[in-house]
Structure formats: C-alpha cells, structure tokens
Design a protein that fits this description.
The chain is elongated and about 60 Å long. It is about 55% helix and about 5% strand. By secondary structure, it is mostly helical. It contains 13 helices and two strands. Strands 1-2 form a two-stranded parallel ribbon. Helix 8 runs parallel beside helix 10 (about 170-180).
C-alpha cells in the first residue's frame, strides 16, 4: 500500500527522501539505479543544477550508492560547468562508445572478441562453428558497433533463419533482417555510416566523442 501511504499525500521533498531512506533500510536495498535519465524534464524540474542538487541530497539522505544511466543525450545535464561535471561524475563515470571495427588487416580486438563470444549462442541446426570475416563485416556495417543493435540483429537473424528453414546465419539473412525488422533505426545507422559530423549530430543519442570534437571546431 505504498502508493496510498506516500503517493496520495502531499509530503515535502525532504519528507519523501527520509521515507525513501526508511524503505531502503527496510528492504535492505544495496544499490539504486536511475535508468533512462535523459528523459528527465529540465523545464519541469527547475534546471540541471537543481536536478543535480536533488541527486546529491538524495544520495546523502538515503545513504545508498546511486548509478545514473542514460544515452549521450543526457550529457548536457552534467557537463554544463565544472561543478555539475564533478557532481555528475561522483565516484567516476563511463562513456560507453560504439565498438570500433578496425581495418581489414587488423580487426578491432574488442569487436572481434565480442562477436566471437556472441556467435557461440546460436540455436540453429546448421550453425557455423567459425564466424567468417564476410559475415562479421556485414554485421558491423548494419549495426555500426552499437552493442544493442549488434545483439538485436543477431537474435532477429536467428528467428528469420529458423522461420525460413535456412537454419544458418548468412550475409543475406543479416541484410534481410536489417531491412525488414529494423526499419526505424535506418536513418540513424545511415548517418553513422556516412561519417559526416553534422548528419550524426542530428540525432542527439548518437553524438560520440569524435563527432563532438569536429562540431566544436566549426
């Protein structure tokens, strides 16, 4: 009955924080994760500085480690000035970029290791034991090294291979999966494939370090 006890009453923010501390102790919560932080409304919350003050006070009140997770779109919340960046970093921050493909002669170790490991998780009757370079290259081209898309294409390609009776992941299966099942992300992937900073910057969730630097040079 937490909604009735706490949500339907007009408690102050300070009171609600203290109640959160009591509940976290009661349930022995060890970590609070705030995901999709890029969706926080700056206008409705009074600005980034006020939001960061709230998070700092929350951590101090409930005495819990807090991990904030978001897309690159959330970076402006923490990077407006040094004070905000220091508070946003806390005990450290990680900016998780897309994996690099590397050159034809020297494949990125991260991309090579990740795809080799993921390749083992197949439920196909004719699954190849070895991941060919051709399939690996097309896989990267269609995902641009974005982890979520890499995994989605791999899973959806298996569905399509099973439904069609091919029972094997091929270049054509990957391409058909991308064209038919992942249409909403085509504009973003094409922007990344182009390598043009201004095109990539149109999608705030795709802004990466190299692109930020190019835009700043303008």
């Amino acid at each position: 009955n937490y909604e009735k006890r706490y949500g339907q009453k007009r408690h102050s923010i300070e009171t609600l924080m203290n109640l959160m501390g009591q509940l976290s102790n009661h349930h022995a919560i060890g970590l609070l994760i705030i995901d999709e932080i890029q969706h926080l409304s700056i206008s409705n919350s009074g600005g980034a500085e006020k939001m960061l003050n709230f998070f700092v006070t929350l951590v101090n009140t409930i005495n819990l480690p807090v991990v904030m997770i978001g897309t690159p779109k959330a970076r402006f919340i923490f990077e407006q000035d040094f004070r905000s960046a220091r508070r946003g970093a806390g005990m450290g921050s990680v900016f998780w970029e897309q994996m690099k493909q590397g050159s034809a002669e020297n494949t990125s170790q991260e991309w090579h290791s990740f795809t080799n490991t993921l390749w083992k998780y197949q439920w196909l009757n004719r699954a190849d034991t070895e991941l060919s370079q051709e399939v690996r290259d097309v896989w990267y081209e269609l995902s641009q090294g974005i982890l979520d898309i890499v995994v989605k294409i791999f899973v959806l390609a298996q569905f399509r291979a099973i439904e069609s009776g091919i029972e094997k992941i091929t270049v054509r299966v990957l391409q058909t999966t991308y064209e038919e099942d992942l249409k909403p992300i085509h504009p973003m992937i094409k922007a990344l494939q182009s390598g043009v900073a201004n095109r990539i910057a149109e999608y705030s969730d795709l802004v990466i370090i190299e692109v930020d630097q190019k835009i700043l040079q303008f």
